[in-house]
Design a protein that fits this description.
With 201 residues, this protein is an alpha+beta fold. The chain has 5 helices and 9 strands; from the N terminus they run αβββββββααββαα. The protein has a 5-stranded antiparallel beta sheet with strand order 2-1-5-6-9. A 4-stranded antiparallel beta sheet has the order 3-4-8-7.
Length: 201
Amino acid sequence: MYIPSDFAEHDRAALYGVIRDNPFGLLVTIAEGAPFASHLPFLLENDRLLAHMARGNPQWRSFDRGGDALAVFHGPHGYVSPRWYAAADAVPTWNYVAVHVYGRPRVIDDAAETRALLDRLVDAYEGGAWRLADRDAKYAAGMMRGIVAFELPLTRLEGKFKLSQNRPVGDRRRVADELYGAGDPLAAALGRLMASRQEGD
């Protein structure tokens, strides 16, 4: 990912926060010489990502061929109009938050470990309202046979928070206000994030 120094985010807690708040990511690997991508919900635990995919998805078969995988997560984002800047010499742009995670994926073959992972994933999204443990054991076993669980230990983490840091303080404040008042939830979240990072400017 191209990351100009103004937009680089190195704080691991902030980057992990983006992943936890936006856990539906994009997993990219190389399969048969070409990029292959799957859209998956992830769980972040102890410097590793945990997930599963359908057994029919061929992507997991490339995991043991070596090489890093890339998991991509997006935070809030929104269009920024040049009308919001004080100076006339400006162009339209897009502000956004993105986190890239690199690591070598490993298939989880152990049935107990897979079941524990599924229980944690379900609980993360259901909060106890629905549990795999409450399903018929034969049904649950059949569901488990249809998926492949895996982990992605984090070996490299990149973050880009493009929040108009290259603009004067007044411009950044105007952009944050415009985004917050745009009526779009994603833009409003971006405006709030920008405002929170400008405190003390």
